[in-house]
Amino acid sequence: MGDYQQRVILAKLGLDGHDRGIKVVARILRDAGMEVIYLGLRQTAASIVAAAEEEDADAIGLSMHNAGHLTLGPKMASALSAAGMDIPLIIGGIVPDEDVEELMSAGIAAVLGPGASAEEVVATVQNAISARDEA
Amino acid sequence: MTSSSDSSIELFESAVKGERRSLGRLLTSIERGGNEAEIIAGLAHQVSGNTHVVGITGAPGSGKSTLTGRLLKLFSEAGDKLAVLAVDPSSPLTGGAILGDRIRMDDLAGEESFIRSMATRGHSGGLALAVPAAIQLFDAAGYEPVIIETVGVGQVEVDVAGAADTTVVVVTPGMGDAVQANKAGLLEVADIFVVNKSDRPGANDARRDLELMLDLGHVSGLEQITGYRPPIIMANSLDGTGAEEVLDAIKSHEEYLHNSGTIHTRQKERLVKEVQNRIELLIGLTADGVLKSELGNRHITQVLDRKISPAEAAKSIVGSLLKN
Description:
The complex is a heterodimer. Helix content of chain A is about 45%, strand content about 20%. By secondary structure, chain A is of the alpha/beta class.
């Protein structure tokens, strides 16, 4: 865990309006002392890359509840690497266990499911950030 | 300084050339404060002083971000490359923050514009130093205008918005009667008033109360001293009503500042305030150090024993500091 103020972008990609979960995660991260830049609904890979540049984000969290994760997750990861940005990308939401490996090999840093506790959410984000910092 | 400040200089050069990610990283350094922030602010200061700074403030939920989003669209459409600094409060308990202003702006922002969210953070004077430095950095990178959006609660936030060239205060219907409007504070720093959510009941009452408040400034002579009467604009930022009038009012206020020469006074006041804030911060840091030193302990013991008063202790400590 770094000794600086961590800034995390939270967003939902595309046509997925289920935003209860992402709001809960925003609050969990805030209460863990992080700064959450909340982008909300209907973002595109391009708008998230632009926000990450302007906000100098340390991590990006995507919330996915419409079974689009196998398409949109890797798309987001490649948009970031195409922009030359080394920022850990974490997916939270409804992701079947058998899809996790495919996402990880596509460059997603971590996947958080519906059972994750507040402590797990915070630890996952912090670990992803420190893994990037140490790399 | 070592390699990190070398990289700050490189980042600064590339930010001035339009590299957005460099600008993003410099803003982070400025927020963190310390030596690195001072070096960056120093570089930016040399080439700044050109942009027009617009402060937008008002109570939480009054529609500042939505209005800012509308202005972003209008300025961008007019070909301006503008920057927005959206300030939101940090939690006093955990230091965390949810910075949610972008959701009301993103759709409306032009590709050339730059939005940055900033948390107030706890450390004393932090915001008061970071905001002017960020303005200078945007200025150096060629952004014009620079819009600062802050919640109008807390002295620092009001100071920050009040230090703009043009300060827009957003109010909503139901904020209180004419007596509230005459209390000193936020309303006094306004160059432009916006009554937002003007489709709601009470919007005309709010306008009347503001007019009355301004009329009393005419009676008391305040208007003569300032030589300017702020316009009141009815707006509904959800559908965009009134946004163009706000834009026009900002432009005519800018014209007024230049024609009357007031712009120089404002810019000078802002720089004087920044020097003052930095002096206070330096003295505050020195005071923290002294309190933990042998000299500090000796005085505090005497205060605890009721031998000298806190005021006498403070004077004596400052006296011996100034001698050194």
